[in-house]
């Protein structure tokens, strides 16, 4: 059985930058009790 270490779970810098870009670009808002997503582009 293979055990994972913290180093195995660490994403690459490119993956982290992609996640940051998506998180910055897309937002959600609660409008009339309904969750709506929108893009800042």
Number of strands: 2
Taking pLDDT < 50 over at least 5 consecutive residues as the criterion, the unreliable ranges are none
Q: Kindly state the mean pLDDT as a whole number?
A: 77
Beta strand %: 25-35%
Terminal-residue CA separation: 46 Å
Number of helices: 2
Coarse shape: elongated
Task: Give helix and strand order, one letter per element, not per position.
Answer: HHEE
Largest sheet: 2 strands, antiparallel
Name the helicity range.
40-55%
What gyration radius follows from the Cα positions, in whole Å? 16 Å
Question: What structural category do the secondary elements indicate?
Answer: alpha+beta
Widest sheet, order of strands: 1-2
Keywords:
41 residues, alpha+beta, elongated
Give structural notes:
With 41 residues, the chain is of the alpha+beta class. It has helices at 6-9, 13-25; strands at residues 26-31, 34-39. It has a two-stranded antiparallel sheet with strand order 1-2. The chain is elongated.
Describe this structure in a few short sentences.
The chain is of the alpha+beta class and 41 residues long. 41% of the residues lie in helices and 29% in strands. The protein has a two-stranded antiparallel sheet.
Topology:
Layout: H1 6-9, H2 13-25, E1 26-31, E2 34-39
Antiparallel strand pairs: 1-2
């Amino acid at each position: 059985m293979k055990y994972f270490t913290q180093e195995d779970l660490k994403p690459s810098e490119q993956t982290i930058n992609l996640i940051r870009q998506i998180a910055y670009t897309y937002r959600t808002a609660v409008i009339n009790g309904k969750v709506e997503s929108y893009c800042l582009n």
